[in-house]
Amino acid sequence: xxxxxxxRAWFGATVTIADEDDNERTVTLVGDDEQxxxxxxxxxxxxxxxxxxxxxxxxxxxxxxxxxxxEWEVLAIAYQAG
Length: 82
Hints:
Blueprint: E1 13-19, E2 24-30, E3 41-43, H1 47-52, E4 60-65, E5 68-79
Parallel strand pairs: 2-3
Antiparallel strand pairs: 1-2, 1-5, 4-5
């Protein structure tokens, strides 16, 4: 909530992304000890979180996964009120 630049994805951001097939996904960037992928809570060190760091709405980010690369577009960024 104390993030000064709320136009970009940083720690604590809830980010809505879409892949090449327009499949949307919403994730929250959290500490590695708080991660729960089934609940959309992605650890800060996870590949998708690393790719999203500093992204703004409209940015395309490539995530390198074991199955290969996947590109995501950032649709929205929100921060929970403190």
